Structure formats: C-alpha cells, structure tokens
Amino acid sequence: MEPFRISVAQDVLDDLRTRLVRTRFTAPSAPGWDAGADPDYLRSLVDYWANGFDWRAAEMRLNAYPQFTDRGQHFVHVRRDASRPPVLLAHGWPSSFIEMLPLTDLLEVDVVVPSLPGFLFSALPDRPLTRAAIAETFHTLMTETLGYERYFAFGGDIGGAASGWLATMYPHEVAGLHVIHGPFPADFDAAPITPEEQAFLDAEERYDEWDSGYSWIMSTRPDTIAAALADSPAGLAAWIIDKYRDWSDCGGDLESRFDRDTLCTILTLYWATESIGTSFRQYLDYPLNTPRPQITVPVAVTQSHEPGIENFPRSIAHRAASDIRQYSVPGRGGHFLAFEEPRLIADELRAFMQAVD
C-alpha cells in the first residue's frame, strides 16, 4: 500500500487548454437539451474549463483527503473510529470517487472510497470486469490491504450492484448493505409479478428505449466512441454532462446540483487519466455477469429520485433481499444521491449502521 497524491503534469494541462480553445461546436439539432448536450451550454462550460477553472486549487482540495494505491487499486482512506466497523462507499458511472467525498465528511467512522477498476487512477484487472470481480477487488482492499474484519458497504449504480455481490459473497464480513437503487432479484419466479411491479417494469423498459443509446454504444463499440472522447475534451464533457443532467434530481438545471468547478474537476480527472475508455469495460463485459444469489445480510434502501427508477416497488427489493431493515423514499436526490443530498444519506446510513452494529 503506497500513499498517493494527484499531480497532473503541466504539459497535460497546457495541451488540454489548447484543445479546449480550439473546439469546433456542432449546431443544435433541437432546442436546448432535447437532442443531447445543449451546444450553447457546452460552449459556455468549455470556455469556463479553459479560462476560468483553477485545476491546481481543485487538485489541492482533493489531496486533502488521504489517498493510497494497492495492487493497482486507488482509494481514499479516512480514519476516524477504529472501534466500529468502517464503511466502503462505492460510486458508479459516469462518476468518480469525488461523488462520495461530501458524504465522507459527515461520517464518524472509518471511511474507504475506492475508484472503480478502470476508473481514473485504478487499473483494470486481468479478467472480465463483472460485478462479482469488482466485489472481490473491494473485499481484498477492505480485508487484506486495510485489515478490517467486518465492514458496511454503501453504493449506487455499478457500485451498488458490486456491493450487493459483496453481501452475497462475503456475508460474514459484510455487516450490512445500504443502496440507493433497490436490488433486483435474479428472477421473478418465486411469486407472480404484481400489477405494481409490472407497471414499473413496463415503464422502465419505455425509459430505456429512450435513454439507452449511450449504453448500447459503450457495450458494443466502446473503442470507437472512446477514440473520439479521448481526443476531444469537449466531446468528453458532452458525453458526461448529458448523463449528469438527465440522471440527477436537478429539474433540468444541471448547476443546481453540480457547480462548474465540480463538473470541471470530474472532467479533468477523466481527461488527465485517459480513463474514459477503460470506464466502459464493465459495459462490454456486462453479459458475463451471472445471476446474483439472494442477499441475506441486513439491507437499507434510500430510493433515489431519478428517471426510470423513482417508482421502484419495494416488493421487488424484498424479492432480492431477505432482511430489509430500513427503506425510505425521500423523493429528492437522483443517481448521484450521496453527492446531491449528502446529509440525507449520512443520517440514513448512520441510523442503519447503529441499528445493525
């Protein structure tokens, strides 16, 4: 385990600015964001990224958190109270470890925030990047690298799914699981699908038909789109902010949830690490995932408020997990809930950990 500090070379930043100021922007195909990233907003953000954003200040803020690498795995490790089980906070796509930092600031226990394999400073493993493989990497980090005997896991999106696998693969070490997307069962064979469940599944399918273009591209032609995004920072920005706006609980106003410095910090991290392509690997490898067994450890759900998932029936989570201790639907905070509503999540996570531990 080696200490790690973020230090982007100045020539990388100079090259980035040169590319930004020479960006060629597309004409809009539809008003505003109706056809994807709004070209007018993108132009404004790119101008700020090139001429107003202070990366070195952002770098200094990030380096205030103790960071390490071990076996190619990057993580933040904040020590606070070793007498209680720690918590692992796992992000998703197109996110990064910084999504979990506001939540980290509010917790009183030891906190571990890994970068997903293939994201930013974490290397890809030498095997398919399934949810189970991510879980195994995280468990090795928590037990072998850091020496914890028991721990809690929290996450959403990919991180939440990997945390679900942690709970099924290592039920004796995982004290509890807290997720922002209610877990899905491997199948619906145990009991007939209810009308509420069917309505949700139908609505989710309709939303996916509208929203899943990005996923199909990254699942089937990741190297093609990665070649464009790795060469154009404006293209990278468009690809990422489109999802931050769509999936967050921002009411169409992206900067009501993510200010420009935060957006530019995320974008610079992806750019400087050249990791947008490797972040797609878990999409390419998704068909290699196997059905996850039922979750038997204590579970808490704080349901996110985002398109396609906000009407998730609690009964589906009960099909997937046998011991749901806590379930709430706050009606605010989207796909990046830990960042959008860190105090809400801190309160719910704290209550869950205290009740279980």
Automatic annotation (TrEMBL):
Keyword Hydrolase among UniProt keywords: yes
Source taxon at top rank: Bacteria
Keyword Transmembrane: no
Keywords annotated in UniProt: Aromatic hydrocarbons catabolism, Hydrolase
Epoxide hydrolase N-terminal domain mapped to chain residues: 1-100
A molecular function GO annotation: hydrolase activity
Gene3D superfamilies: alpha/beta hydrolase (3.40.50.1820)
One matching Pfam family: EHN
Record-linked InterPro entries: AB_hydrolase_fold, Epoxide_hydro_N, Epoxide_hydrolase
Family: Belongs to the peptidase S33 family.
Protein name: Epoxide hydrolase
Organism: Agromyces neolithicus
Lineage of producing organism: Bacteria, Bacillati, Actinomycetota, Actinomycetes, Micrococcales
